[in-house]
Design goal:
Blueprint: H1 31-40, H2 46-66, E1 72-74, H3 82-89, H4 103-112, E2 122-124, E3 131-133, E4 136-137, H5 148-159, E5 164-169, H6 171-177, E6 179-180, H7 191-207, E7 212-216, H8 228-240, E8 247-251, H9 260-265, E9 271-275, E10 294-300, H10 310-321, E11 326-331, H11 350-355, H12 359-375, H13 381-396, H14 403-414, H15 422-433, E12 439-440, H16 450-460, H17 466-487, H18 504-507, E13 511-514, E14 521-524, E15 527-529, E16 533-539, H19 546-554, E17 561-565, H20 567-572, E18 575-576, H21 582-602, E19 607-611, H22 623-641, E20 649-654, H23 663-668, E21 673-676, H24 684-691, E22 697-700, H25 713-726, E23 733-734, H26 745-765
Parallel strand pairs: 1-5, 4-6, 5-7, 7-8, 8-9, 9-10, 10-11, 12-23, 16-18, 17-19, 19-20, 20-21, 21-22
Antiparallel strand pairs: 2-3, 13-16, 14-15
The structure holds glutamine (GLN) and zinc ion.
Binding site for L-methionine: 443-445, 496, 611
Pathway: Amino-acid biosynthesis; L-methionine biosynthesis via de novo pathway; L-methionine from L-homocysteine (MetE route): step 1/1
Binding site for Zn(2+) 1: 653, 655, 668, 677, 738
């Protein structure tokens, strides 16, 4: 690689061959989670927490360097979230946390709130299931540089003799992910204020011995910014002109750069990182401006758990070598999104294990590919042969291809996935269910009590028999039914005591899924999830929920809703096979859910809810891909819900997002009743639904279950009155925002009593 002659780059231009864009930080055994939660609970002090954190950082760096990476990312550690870290770096914490004297506690106050400080809002990081904290930029924000964290992590690495590359979120991405508050302009308008700070940071990092700095700009693969190419060119031209700076590596991930790639390549930055997995592997080869850049080729999927096909990755790298100045091998994004290592999975069969690569295995793949580039493929012949064998084994494994299920899917699809007309369904359901206007219900789960958790643990450890477990769960169900009858709700639920997680519960019962033992991935802060691995064709060997539902229904004359998780949500919260289109996989899951709805109906269940809280999450980052996604996502939902008769009422439930962009798709789901998160957004969603002519029933959430606050009767009644102004009472349902499993029984009882009273009050006013 040679630096462009006009740019004031460091005299001897450095280079690297093998790296990852970032790595997990919670600890292979979730050590950071435990330590942080102990610190919050006051069981350990700050010094003890910091020592756990320093140990994890040091072990991570040593592992990355030891595996053969010649450039190791640092500042990828975080006590909570990397976007929040960037807000601290740039002096952009909200003024309301200033009163907290200790800087670590101030940081946690911004992340989680305190008794009297509201936390920052949390939202999904691009199209992943990781959540970041949304910085607030307002008139009170006075940017200033606070580089302590990145400088000290760099110093730690240098003391360890590691070739460290500080990683910082770039200015465009930081501002695009922030939100304006207190009447301030869109954060991106304040770009010019931030750029000198980044310049200063680059100079300080160079002074502290950094030869490379990675600036992350994933926002450039989305359609968020008005003119991403021009902005990217302007920002990186400016930063490129910083005197005495380290070499600059602009990393992008989660998609293709399109026009922003040649724009970035025209600037003086030394390296550009491209995601060749999510973004396709062809485009960079056609950009002449890359001829003097180091192209950091993200050929190893950082987000999914499949082993890389080394042969195919070498082909991609060979093609790129002809066009870029030099090529380094990398993961497509940070491996934050995959578990630490396969080492801890002892129950995998050999075939399945050979198909997989978690974080540590991906690092090894990067190193292998880089060695092949430098020393020729013969130098890694064994690894290539093993990879080829794994690819062949995965292709031919009978579990991946169940022709009976595939044929049945085609037959069902060919026979159509539409239900009867909505008004006919409505009439038949009314005649059967006799529900009042403003019918009251809940979203599915009731508090997961200590007894429930204990029973699950005891069952897992073999301390109690499955029969005893079932007895205890049934006792919980009976209790929850009794509670709902006492409160006077119209449509009951069984409370989901038997479900540890709304996706894992189904994954454990479907063929084609594998549950990991220790495949934890950070979801936000100290919260981790363990997504199942969907590796083969999905088959439902037997009914999954019918016994629980019918037991609950046997205890009451009121209707009990059957509760299922929808195909898109199961897909979104699993690691999914990458050998066929997502749409095909979604349809296979949908067929299994459809079979479940039909079985529930035959068992006498009259109302079935199919939850799709993740419908918005998988929405593609590029506008032109959105329509195709929504088409197949809606299709999968309809496939899963159209097997039942017109008199069976289908509910769906949506939450966790802004619905504006997908409001049309929500209508297309064609559910009879849609419950939707609304308590925080004050019913605005109803106007949006009206605007598109939404004509089925809707239950806007009137109880914010994310807060321990119990809403009063009059407060709920006011929300309902607002709702009735937008939608006729006959089409309105009354329900909380989401499931109740994280709340206490006392809170839930009080809130639901108020909810039922408020419904009666407003019903009487109609
Ligand atoms: N039925 C699920 C529950 O109540 C829905 C959860 C969700 O929307 N995330 O827990
Ligand atoms: Zn929900």
């Amino acid at each position: 690689m040679t630096a462009p002659s006009a740019s004031p780059t460091p005299s001897a231009s450095p280079t690297f061959r093998a790296t990852v864009l970032g790595s997990p930080r919670i600890g292979a055994h979730r050590e950071l989670k435990r330590a942080t939660e102990s610190y919050w609970a006051g069981r350990i002090d700050r010094a003890q927490l910091e020592s756990v954190a320093a140990g994890l950082r040091s072990a991570t760096r040593a592992a990355l360097a030891g595996a053969g990476l010649d450039s190791v990312p640092v500042n990828t550690f975080s006590y909570y979230d990397q976007v929040l870290d960037t807000a601290v770096l740039l002096g952009a914490l909200p003024p309301r946390v200033d009163a907290v004297p200790d800087d670590l506690d101030r940081y946690f106050a911004a992340a989680r709130g305190t008794a009297d400080i509201l936390p920052l809002e949390m939202t999904k990081w691009f199209d992943t299931n990781y959540h970041y904290l949304v910085p607030e930029i307002g008139p009170g924000t006075t940017f200033h540089l606070n580089p302590g964290k990145v400088l000290s992590e760099l110093a730690e690495a240098r003391a360890q003799g590691i070739p460290a590359r500080p990683v910082v979120i770039g200015p465009l991405t930081f501002l695009a992910l922030s939100k304006a508050v207190d009447g301030g302009p869109a954060p991106i308008e304040r770009l010019d204020e931030l750029l000198p700070l980044y310049r200063d940071l680059l100079e300080q990092l160079a002074g502290a011995g950094a030869r490379w700095v990675q600036l992350d700009e994933p926002v450039l693969v989305t359609d968020t910014l008005d003119d991403p190419a021009a902005l990217a060119e302007g920002v990186y031209q400016y930063l490129g002109e910083t005197s005495g700076r380290p070499a600059l590596f602009v990393a992008t991930y989660f998609g293709a750069l399109d026009g922003a790639l040649p724009a970035l390549a025209r600037t003086p930055v030394e390296a550009i990182g491209v995601d060749l997995v999510a973004g396709g592997d062809r485009a960079p080869a056609a950009i002449p401006e890359l001829a003097d850049k180091l192209l950091v080729a993200g050929v190893v999927d950082g987000r999914n758990i499949w082993a890389t096909d080394l042969e195919s990755a070498l082909g991609t790298l060979a093609r790129l070598s002809g066009s870029a100045g030099a090529v380094a091998v990398s993961t497509s994004c940070s491996t934050l999104h995959v578990p630490y290592s396969l080492d801890q999975e002892t129950e995998l069969d050999a075939a399945l294990r050979s198909w997989l690569a978690f974080g540590a295995e991906k690092v090894a793949e990067v190193a292998t590919l880089a060695t092949a580039l430098r020393d020729g493929r013969e130098s890694v012949a064994d690894a290539i042969a093993a990879s080829a064998a794994a690819v062949a084994s995965r292709k031919s494994d009978p579990r991946l291809h169940n022709s009976a299920v595939r044929a049945r899917l085609q037959t069902v699809l060919a026979s159509g996935i539409a239900r009867g007309p909505a008004d006919r369904r409505r009439a038949r359901q009314d005649a059967r269910l006799h529900l009042p206007a403003l019918a009251t219900t809940t979203i599915g789960s009731y508090p997961q009590t200590v007894e429930i958790r204990k029973a699950r643990a005891a069952m897992k450890s073999g301390e109690i028999t499955p029969a005893e477990y079932e007895r205890r769960m049934k006792a919980e169900i009976a209790e929850v039914i009794r509670l709902q009858e006492t409160i006077g709700l119209d449509v009951l639920v069984h409370g989901e005591p038997e479900r540890n997680d709304m996706v894992q519960y189904f994954a454990e019962q479907l063929d084609g899924f594998f549950a990991t033992q220790n495949g934890w991935v950070q979801s936000y802060g100290t919260r981790c999830v363990r997504p199942p691995i969907l590796y083969g064709d999905v088959v439902r060997p037997k009914p999954m929920t019918v016994d629980w539902a019918t037991y609950a229904q046997s205890l009451t004359t009121k209707p009990v809703k059957g509760m299922l998780t929808g195909p898109v949500t199961i897909l979104a919260w699993s690691f999914v096979r990458d050998d066929q289109p997502l749409a095909d996989t979604a349809n296979q899951i949908a067929l299994a859910i459809r079979d479940e709805t039909v079985d529930l109906e035959s068992a006498g269940i009259t109302i079935i809810q199919v939850d799709e809280p993740a419908l918005r999450e998988l929405l593609p980052l590029r506008s032109h891909q959105k329509e195709a996604y929504l088409r197949w996502a809606v299709g999968a939902f309809r496939l899963s819900t159209s097997g039942v008769g017109d008199s069976t009422q289908i509910h769906t439930h949506l939450c966790y997002s802004e619905f504006g962009e997908i409001i049309g798709a929500i209508a297309d789901l064609d559910a009879d009743v849609t419950s939707i998160e609304a308590a925080r957004s004050h019913m605005e969603v109803l106007d949006d639904l009206n605007a598109i002519g939404f004509s089925t029933s809707v239950g806007p959430g009137v109880y914010d279950i994310h807060s321990p606050r119990v809403p009063g009767t009059e407060e709920i009644a006011e929300s309902l009155r607002a709702a009735v102004r937008a939608i006729p009472a006959g089409r309105l349902w009354v329900n909380p925002d989401c499931g109740l499993k994280t709340r206490s029984t006392d809170e839930v009882t009080a809130a639901l009593q108020n909810l039922v009273q408020a419904a009666e009050l407003v019903r009487a006013e109609q």
